[in-house]
Amino acid sequence: MLFSSSEFIFLFLPITFFIYFLLNRISNHLVGKSWLCISSLFFYGYWDASYLPLLLTSIIFNFFIGAFLSRGKENGMHFMRKCSLILSISLNLLVLGYYKYANFFIENINSLSGSEYTIKAIVLPLGISFFTFTQIAFLVDSFMGKAKEYDFINYTLFVTFFPHLIAGPILHHGEMMPQFKDKNNNRINYKNVICGLMIFSIGLIKKVIVADTFATFAERGYTQGYVYDFYNSWATSLSYTFQLYFDFSGYCDMAIGAALLFNVMLPINFNSPYKALDIQDFWRRWHITLGRYLRDYVYIPLGGNKVSPFRNYLNLFVTFTIAGLWHGASWMFVLWGAMHGLALIIHRVWKYAGLTMPKYLAWFTTFMFVNISWIFFRSPNLDTATDIIKNMLDISKSMDVSLPSIPTTDLSRYGLFSGWVAQHISFGIAAYISIFAMSLLALVICSQKNSQEIALNGKSGYIKVVSLALLSSISVYFTLHSESAVFLYFNF
């Protein structure tokens, strides 16, 4: 059940919303929260009910271990607590590793040794990376005494709350539990409803209009056997760069919007990352909760920046290599993470040297690095990635008029201007004029205020109500007239 599906928008979300607040009104908040837990488990099971036992087992195990880690601190059981923490984290990672990396591990063993080991194909449970990392953070917080409130219904809701369950954001226990306990959140808050629906509608538009349009070009460009030239290499790379951004950003907007209907504010996961002026700024804006998680539970435990410069650079490199591996079982993901780790090292050296560059050059350099790194992230292998980049840099072919010609009768499908360009200048330019125009428009959109800045700032006056009606109408129209693909980050 996609956020962008009719089933979710017209059935699941309104039914869950109205029954939740009805139960809060005629009963107590515990009943309402129990309903949200049941609804969230149904939402997860709608994808594949066979993985519900795995999710429930994970919740029960981590809840009781977390309770022990917290209460044991008061009893001075440091050694037992430390052993329990290490064992529980190891078990969580072992389960994640089995489902996400077992096939990858066997393939690499076979490749290195020439063996032919095989295991049954393992299907990755949806959201396993997110609910596993969320609960590992809970265990560490419990050990350190940061998580002090233990209620099983609240904890189950913390893990399963449907807006974040499948693809994040990665939550901290401390930022969610006070919201679930707050009795003021038991009633409908009409300002939150307006803001939530507005953010949800913006996210839906990002997904079904922008991301899914770019997806057509990106999927074609990364199809095996596709022949690249200067134009379609740029079209392929830019298409995926914007598809991924608007897909994941759109999902996060819908998650925040849906949660806000229930008076729950999820942490912002995107803050206009394509406005970044350096790679560090990019990671402060892109997938913010993952960056926060890696900082708190990988980078700082490795020593962070309180070590020698060399160790600090090594910590950065290791942290982002792990970030690459977190996205999936592929050496291309690892390479992508290593590229970002190396870029952060270069940025830090540049910064320490006191060097600067003009603002627009800084933006262009950052954006182009991110664009090129996404090629490695998306490509099935290194040969495909290098082939795309090689053709992107081959300017000598940019005015190649030897590309296949098209009959004059077919020029109309490119539009009046593009048809003239195809006939008199270059078929290549004409064929990709639309994608470059779309990319330019996407950059303009990225440079404007983001959805949170639009919806959450200011009063909920008539302008917001009218804007909400317009956005909702547009988003619902395209939802009913599109076949939206699955969100990309469900794969990670």
TrEMBL record:
Bilayer topology: Multi-pass membrane protein
Alphabetical UniProt keywords: Acyltransferase, Alginate biosynthesis, Cell inner membrane, Cell membrane, Membrane, Transferase, Transmembrane, Transmembrane helix
Membrane-crossing residue ranges in chain numbering: 6-23, 53-71, 83-101, 121-140, 152-170, 190-210, 248-268, 316-339, 360-377, 425-445, 465-490
GO cellular component, one term: plasma membrane
Pathway(s): Glycan biosynthesis; alginate biosynthesis
Any one of the GO BP annotations: alginic acid biosynthetic process
Primary location class: membrane
Enzyme Commission number(s) from the entry: 2.3.1.-
Listed Pfam families: MBOAT
Coiled-coil residues: none
Record-given protein name: Probable alginate O-acetylase
Source organism (scientific name): Pantoea latae
